[in-house]
Specification:
The protein has about 325 residues and is of the alpha+beta class. It has 2 domains: about 170 residues, no CATH class; about 130 residues, L,D-transpeptidase catalytic domain-like (Beta Barrel), CATH 2.40.440. The protein contains 8 helices and 17 strands. It has an 8-stranded mixed sheet with strand order 7-6-5-14-9-10-11-13, with helices on one face. A hairpin with a 5-residue loop joins strand 10 and strand 11. Helix 1 crosses helix 8 and helix 3 packs across helix 6. About 40% of the residues are buried.
């Protein structure tokens, strides 16, 4: 009964947050469909009407987004049998991570890779990351080498699972057509021969990109490019003079969505969410709608949500957070 009540409450919160997005485009467009220029934002939100034959795991590569982020943005939608005519949110919009904006930034917290090139807008790509029992190091390294049509040399764990000593380039090679070799031995940024593993927990620690994405990134990146790996499920940024908050599923929730198609219940917000928002808001903290902050932290849609109100508006009162 507790889990049922939690899911009911979560559905009510989602209805409030996505009301604008679910209206007819002729009536009201979501502000992130055509966002104003912002140094903190990349991409834009869009929508797709599902067909009876669609599955979200096949739609994700077609739409250029990750599987887990597509499910997180569309809670309650059956990933294998979405109802014909369902209006799906396509979350191809992201706040930038809090990290130096240079070279490659990999954010495990939102399953995306960001590439910063001087004089050009940031690029971002959904990624496949380590599955349960494996991990990718956090910290700073660099691209040491890059190879087209790489040969795969399975590591010890893969060899224990029966993989051969090496796999030549071709359709059976899980590295795909391109690979960037990092300063951390055995960790690569590479393509894939199975696009359905992108945007999921699917590797032994390497970073996987869609074939078209790694082809683009490969041409842009040169050896010596810095690579920073962070874990930031919570991000904040300013768009058009308003503070936006993006909260993604944490590692446990993301894995649960990947494996079971839905997050664990009951939902829970990040423990330090209000503190992060307060720091980001700075002198504009009086305009923060703390009730909206809390709701955004609970549902974790992975979609940037405005959490400040106009100066003449009064923020909705929110009960104090109870410690768990």
């Amino acid at each position: 009964m507790t889990e049922r009540r939690s899911r009911f409450a979560r559905s009510a919160v989602l209805a409030a947050l996505l009301a604008a997005a679910c209206q007819s485009p002729a009536v009201r467009r979501h502000p992130l469909e055509t966002p104003p220029p912002s140094p903190d934002l990349v991409g834009r939100l869009s929508f797709r009407v599902a067909r009876a034959e669609d599955t979200l795991i096949d739609l994700a590569p077609e739409l250029g987004v990750g599987y887990v982020e597509l499910l997180a943005a569309n809670p309650g939608v059956d990933p294998w049998l979405p109802k014909d005519g369902t209006r799906l949110v396509v979350p191809a919009v992201r706040l930038l991570p809090s990290a130096p904006r240079e070279g490659i930034v990999v954010n495990l917290g939102d399953l995306h890779l960001y590439y910063f090139e001087k004089g050009a807008p940031p690029r971002f790509y959904p990624i496949g990351i380590a599955k349960d029992g494996y991990s990718t190091p956090l910290g700073v390294t660099m691209v040491k080498d890059k190879r087209e049509k790489p040969t795969w040399y399975p590591g010890p764990s893969a060899r224990r699972d029966g993989k051969p000593e090496f796999v030549k380039p071709g359709e059976d090679n899980p590295l795909g057509e391109y690979a960037l070799y990092l300063g951390w031995p055995a960790y690569l940024i590479h393509g894939t021969n199975d696009p359905r593993g992108v945007g999921r927990h699917s590797s032994r620690g390497c970073i996987r990109l869609y074939p078209n994405d790694i082809a683009e990134l490969y041409q842009l990146v040169q050896p010596g490019t810095p690579v920073r790996v962070v874990n930031q499920p919570v991000k904040l940024g300013w768009i058009g003079g308003e503070l936006y908050l993006e909260v993604n599923p944490d590692a446990e929730q993301s894995l649960e969505i990947d494996e079971n198609g839905k997050p664990p219940a009951p939902p829970r917000p990040p423990a330090d969410l209000r503190e992060q928002v307060k720091r980001a808001a700075g002198k504009e903290a009086a305009r923060v709608d703390w009730a909206r902050v809390d709701r955004t932290g609970i549902v974790r849609l992975g979609i940037p949500t405005r959490v400040t109100l106009p100066e003449d508006a009064k923020p909705e009162a929110a009960p104090p957070r109870r410690s768990s």
